[in-house]
Each structure stands twice: as structure tokens, then as C-alpha cells.
Design goal:
homodimer, 232 residues, alpha/beta, 5-stranded mixed β-sheet
Amino acid sequence: MTKGILYGVGVGPGDAELMTVKARRVIRESDVIAVPRADMGEQTALAIAADCVGDKPVLRCDMPMTRDKAARDTAHDRAADEICALLDAGKRVAFLTLGDPTIYATYWYVHKRVAARGYPTEIVPGVPSFCAAAARTGRALCMDGEPLHIIPASHGAAARGLALPGGKVLMKAGKGILDVRDALAAQGQLANAVLVERCGMEGERIVTDLAQLGDPTGYFSIILVRAEGNTD
Amino acid sequence: MTKGILYGVGVGPGDAELMTVKARRVIRESDVIAVPRADMGEQTALAIAADCVGDKPVLRCDMPMTRDKAARDTAHDRAADEICALLDAGKRVAFLTLGDPTIYATYWYVHKRVAARGYPTEIVPGVPSFCAAAARTGRALCMDGEPLHIIPASHGAAARGLALPGGKVLMKAGKGILDVRDALAAQGQLANAVLVERCGMEGERIVTDLAQLGDPTGYFSIILVRAEGNTD
């Protein structure tokens, strides 16, 4: 029997047309589609890829968004067990992730377990959400000698990261977005910033004047901050 | 007459299958394809998109890789003039860039000029080269609360950037790659690093032991450096 393979497939930022040709082919050629259960992001990944997924069986893996490491480890071990059982049966499994699978993807916890057990794996890269947000707002993320810092704002790192020279992308601010806004204001960088929510998805919103932001927003928010002196 | 439009189209990192569905459609629907003249990177962009470009007319814009700002400005103004003349004639122009158009793309100099003159423009995001390099080497770029720093190594910023906590992507090291390797060694980060050259293109090379690197490499080199303590 052919041995199965696990594909980690980036489906891009939201617009189905921003999937790569390879992502579409790999999904179509897979036997089983895997996504995390009850994770808002990955339900979206399934919707983005819907026309390639068709009526293929969908494995929903428990991947809790908790800081309890033991609980996460248990869930990730179980997801790896379920996927390895499919691979042992010769199945090709495509695990869908929003954006790119190597950038803040919970998928990676499953990937490294399955790879460590010696199963074949392949990553299919995708367009990251911050590239789509930059495109949507007509801004360059970085030019010439400028560094670009991708900062997970939900982990309290926003204020530290904002002090770095270069462009910044603040991801996963979530309900802490007003704190991030205040950190931007404190550093005099509010005028350099723009917020994009649900880029390319239904309910997309672009906020160019963050001082006017009243309500905390959801999971799919990205703040782009220009490098000082960059007017691109 | 319909007014023309300028598309900045990311064709991804090298593998034609990593183009997005949208990039392929926009190129096919365009009247003229623009690329920089005599720029190794963008000739490659034309090769990646060859089957969508077909026999469409190709505009080769002079975009010198010089630090002489006046010479660059003159060249970029002229490229913008040429493109705007096509837009005035109602043409749809697709300017191809390797990777993503918002990340270190010389295209941006033309984009901002054309946009500033009031012409319609649209950016089509693409898969950045560093996502493909991470996929190819089976590494996550960043997880959880780790920041990710994209650093243009050709501008002498490598040593400063390497001291930051989090994952790093060192781009455009070019012939300075041995200096970057020495900076990595000096900071004890050699074991965390991997080099990918010409990812997904002919002549691809992956160097996992940078201590063994003897010869300076070309333009398409990317070094990925794991965050300390990250074994993903």
C-alpha cells in the first residue's frame, strides 16, 4: 500500500482567488481534509477552499486556544494520532491553515509531531495575511535597507516591538487592540499606522485614523506601521 | 475609452505552481506585461509567469540597482512616464515582481509615482520567498509569542538584527553572505541557521551547516534563523 502523506496547506488570507495553484491541486488530490475544530480561523480556511474540498471527508481536530500547556499537548498528541492513523491507511491528508503554515499556525504543533514520527510531510506555502493587508491599503511593507518586524501584539510585545527601527506588522491584537493603539500613540506612531480587519473577507474594515477606533475588534486584525521617514 | 490600470503582481518565489489564481488571471487579462530591464530578479518573474504572458507585448523598464539616488529617480520617473502613456491609451498593464510586491520590490518606486499621478492601481499579493524557504526546510518561521524579524542583510544590518529576540529572516545577503555567516557565528547562532538559495528554482541549494560554506552566493539567498529555545 502507498504510504500516506501529510500536507500543511496555506490557503492564503481570505480571498479564494489568492490561493496558489499548488494549494488547489494538493487539496483536490487529497483523500481527507483536516482542520482544527471550533477554531474560528480554520473554519474560515475550510470556507476559502470549499470548491476544492467538495464532499471530501473532513477531520476536525481538537486544538484548544489555551495557555494550559498540558491540555494543549494532549490535544495535539491526539490530533497527530488521528492523522497518523489515516497515513497508515495510505491516505493523503491536507491540513488547511489560513495564510501561510509557517507563520503563527497552530497546525505546526501537529506537523512537528507527525514529522517526528517519521511520516512524509510537505508544506505548501501561502500568501500571509499581512501581505494582503499591505496590498489592500496600497502600502509597501519594507523598502531598501529597512527591516520589517512581525510582532504578535496579543502577547504584550507590542510596546517593545514598536521601538524598533523599520516597518512593523502587529498581528493578533484581538481584544487588546485599544492597548496597542495607546502604545502607538505613546510612541508618536499613530499617524504611521493603519488597521485592516478581515482582509479580503466578508465584513472587511480599514481604519486609517486609529484615534477614532472605539470598539475592540476580532481575531483577524492587522496593524501596519510604516518605518519612520518612509512615505511609501 | 476605458481608462487603463496598473497592476503590481507578485508571482511568488520561483515555482510557477506557487502563483495565485488571481495573479494568473490578472496577467492573462492584461494588455502589456512590464518588468525591469536587465534585472536578474525580474527576468525570472517573467519566466515564472511565461505561460500566462504568452506573446503579450513586454515593456522592459530601466531600473538601475545603484545607490546614486538621482540616477534612480530619473529612471523611475521615465518608467512611470512609459507606463502612464500606456494607461492613457486604455491599456491594462501588469508589472511582475518576484515574491510579494510590498516586500523589498523595486517595483514600488514606479507604483508610488503612477498612483501619485492619479491613475488606478491595484496590488496582487504573492507568496514571499521566505515563506517558501521555510516550507522547503520544514521549519516554522514563528510560533505563539515570538516576533519575526525580516532583515536586509546587504545593508550591514545583519549583526544588529541578530541580537533581537525571536526568529529572523536574513535577505539579500548576496556576496556579503560570508560576513553574515561570521556575524551568526559570533553570536552563537550558527546552529539555529539554514541557508536556502534559489528556492524552488533551477539550481536550488540548501546549506544546513553554514560553517561549511566556502563560496559567496548569488542574489536569491535567504538565511532563516530560529528563535532561541525554538526547536520547531
